[in-house]
Design brief:
about 425 residues, alpha/beta, Rossmann fold, 3 domains, four-stranded parallel beta sheet, 14 strands
Amino acid sequence: MSAALQKGCSDAPVLFERGQREVFCGLTGIVWLHRKIQDAFFLVVGSRTCAHLIQSAAGVMIFAEPRFATAILEERDLAGLADANEELDRTVARLLERRPDIKLLFLVGSCPSEVIKLDLARASQRLDAQFKTRGVRVLSYSGSGIETTFTQGEDACLAALVPQMAQSDAPQLLVVGALAEVVEDQFARLFRAMGIDNFAFLPPRRAADIPAVGRGTRFLLAQPFLADTARALEGRGAQHVPALFPLGAEGTSAWLAAGATAMGVAPARLREATALPERRSREALARMREQLAGKSIFFMPDSQLEVPLARFLSRELGMRLVEVGTPYLHRAHLAHELAALPEGTMLSEGQHVERQLDRVRAARADLTVCGLGLANPLEAEGLRTKWSIELVFTPVQGYDQAADLAELFARPLRRAALLEV
């Protein structure tokens, strides 16, 4: 990033909005987390409504036995008339008897404890002590939509893992955030090419591989919505490495360079490892730029990915940013991203959905990025939309995925052009 671009939107005013929200809850994170940690199981403690949400959101898993389920709370449980702890203990015992492959069990609250009449933190401690001798760890976190947006479910899950990490002050680079295995493998190859062998990923693919942490740990965030996890890691002595997020060729190069600097990699070694994949990525993006340059885009707040995505689309693909809304703007973690946004970009934090919809309709941008619940109504009004949740489910980080990420934004515009013919 050149010196002329260092300010960007670092000091830009932000429109703070508080009102009705249109977001999925943190339970949705289970849909990608259960595929990432291969011997973990997510037991949602909640109502039938929560069971239906998980069932529908993860309907693609119908042909495979998934690693999540719902312990449904009935009216007697919610009224406090039944001993929910006894029922939960029986459910967990039956689950672990049926699924001996489970090594890490998450109890996920669908609502605050005041609503479900059950303290899952204390329940997980009791069950952890009971089943630890059988090689099973039991942890808990909240996926409540009252308290979280949908990506914060991952943050709560990873934050629950941090106390389980062994203490070690040995130097290591830790990548924090759930990545698709293909992306993780690509980053691992690049780290090794740079000469970094002491690296790890959180979450790991298996519970037994939870990395250690300590004063020698330097961590890169792969996702911008991991504030609680970062705070927990810093509490264990680890140091955050600020960087652009690894979206697009520019973001990936900056992210890798930050990690390389933190681990003492020589600049020449970094260039040698990244020159070829970066060039391929930029060439692929140049073809996508022809389709997207000059198109306007409006981000409604949903995933907390909005700011890094806006930077990528503006700087590498030439799109025009009408408004960049995000549920929560973490200025420290997004400092590099804000500096890279075009000066004058309109930023908003939080949501008042009716007011934002008024601005969406007034702007009539070429593309509106929003939650699934708003996309179809806006399409019916003649606006082109992109589901923000698809940007979380799809492998988008890294050099090899940069053009695929751009394609997610080009596709609805191409479809609209074909329908107009």
